[in-house]
Amino acid sequence: MKKAIRVILAALVALIFIGTFVFLYKNSLPKPVQYEVFTPAVLDLSRTTVVTGKIEPRDEVAVKPQISGIITELLKEAGQRVEAGEVIAKLKVIPDMNQLASAESRVRLSQLNLEQAKVDYERQKTLYDKGLISANDYEKVRQSYNQAREEASIAQEQLELTRDGVSASNASSSNTLVRSTISGIILDIPVKVGNSVILSNTFNDGTTIASVADMSKLIFRGNIDETEVGRLTVGMPMDITIGALQDLRFSASLEYISPKATATTGGANQFEIKAAVRVPTDSLGGSAALIRSGYSATANIVLENANQVLTIPEAAIEFSGDSTFVYIVKNPGAKELEYERRQVQTGLSDGINIEVRSGLKAEERVRGGIIVKEDDNN
Fold this sequence. Notes:
Layout: H1 2-28, E1 33-38, E2 41-57, E3 60-63, E4 69-74, E5 81-82, E6 87-93, H2 97-129, H3 135-164, E7 177-179, E8 184-188, E9 196-197, E10 210-213, E11 218-225, H4 226-229, E12 237-242, E13 245-265, E14 268-278, E15 296-313, E16 318-320, E17 323-329, E18 339-349, E19 353-358, E20 366-373
Helix pairs in contact: 2-3
């Protein structure tokens, strides 16, 4: 009995040993691989580039005062719409003392001349009424009197303008009223009530009271790498996406390519481009009204395209120097596929699929990358 048990145990040990040996032997054998197989497809391909930039109004105007003074009232706020000629702010004039003294002196002198001209006129009129002087002499005196009155009126108006910035004759178009020069949205009012402002002249640009822009006319401004700028032409269509408003898409047309590099990024020169953004008129009162000057945006530009061409995944291409090769399936349907290396001519690539211009037929199958090993299913 004991002998039988020993025999059974020895057989079990031998069986385990043999099973382990067979298992290790199988694992040591070369493991055949399986490749993904592709069938060429006829597709439309396009090569695009993405340009980052920002949205800006085409026309942005800095509204500046026509006189120097102090802001006494602001009638508008940033973000409000303003029409051309509408008052944005009111000013109080700070007169130049030399100009004020000169204007006051001119008023006094004109009053003296007017009083004397009036005396002469009344005297000559009395003599004319009595027939003692000719009509010609009377008309000369009357004309001098009228001139003196006009000069006195002008001197008084000039004094009012110098002292107050407004006169009785131009109250409706006073220089103390700062008016918008265009219709649009007020982007910024960089001043406050009480600030001193100066008019633009030869020596300075003047104080900006408000920045106004027509937000219905927008442009996209961005920079493109020097490796791609040569493929651009004026008039190319672009698709604009605004980062803050992902639901909005606008079409645009390239209208400017800088002839000179404007910046350098990572050692590569960047060239400025501008595109006219087409904002649909029916959306100006909707979500498009949310567009703000300076919003970050991206422009998608189609550099090349090829329609209805034979394509395969670019991963199936083997690049060797200036040549390209594919592996064609020689025995479709067999359990173990065999492949033939063949040179092909490629064309446009969109980064995923690539055009095959020659060397491949539409019905042939092409080897791709490794997808599974034989014993991975165990």
